[in-house]
Amino acid sequence: MKLNRYIDHTLLKPDATPDQIKQLCLEALAHEFRAVCVNSKYVPLAASLLKDSTTAVACVVGFPLGAMATGAKAFEAAMAARDGATEIDMVIDIGAAKAGDFDAVERDIAAVVEQTTDYAKVKVIIETCLLTDDEKRECCLAAKRAGAAFVKTSTGFSTGGATVEDIKLMRETVGPDMGVKASGGIRDRAAAEAMIAAGATRIGTSSGVKICE
């Protein structure tokens, strides 16, 4: 298994510096990771460093709370795509999900998809640690209806990260054709392989170098 091609090499800390982002990109190039995942301010830098490589630039949107106005998320996503991101990892309206308003969840996702459909694939972070199993299913279905390319477990900034059980539930819900990204707390090869065996097609981690070495 070529684990490197599953990995989104990630640095989303608020104190990340330009030099650290450069190092992230150099590591991604050295290991041929599938993508780097950065905050929107660093998309131009990452895109310039990864130009003409096999490593994509992913950008988080509405991160990490998901509580931003839909228009703000859509604008941030469009800006990131314009700046060179080809993947958008957006956080859902978690409050709407907890209130049972999955139509609002879907509209929020669709607004981002509509802004980026010609430029970038959208991954939808549902923040599994805050949801019941039924809520997880409904959010995954909302993401699928809205035209997203992936559903994703976690931001890594809340109360928990990816679990094998959640990956299985998400895969069963979206079927075989949609991407499922496991993110949050994946720090070694055994954990990454367990997520892939459960149905993950992408691994978000800041430990990509350690996992592959």
Walk me through this protein's architecture.
45% of the residues lie in helices and 17% in strands. The chain has nine helices and eight strands. An eight-stranded parallel β-barrel has the order 1-2-3-4-5-6-7-8, surrounded by seven helices. The protein is globular. The model has no long low-confidence stretch (mean pLDDT 97).
- Give the termini distance in whole angstroms: 13 Å
Largest sheet properties: 8 strands, parallel, barrel
Count of DSSP E strands?
A: 8
Rg (CA only): 16 Å
Give the percentage of residues in beta strands.
Answer: 15-25%
What's the helix-strand series? EHEHEHEHHEHEHEHEH
Task: List the domain count as a whole number.
Answer: 1
Principal-axes shape call: globular
Summing up helix and strand content along with how strands pair, one would put the structural category as alpha/beta
How does CATH name the architecture? Alpha-Beta Barrel
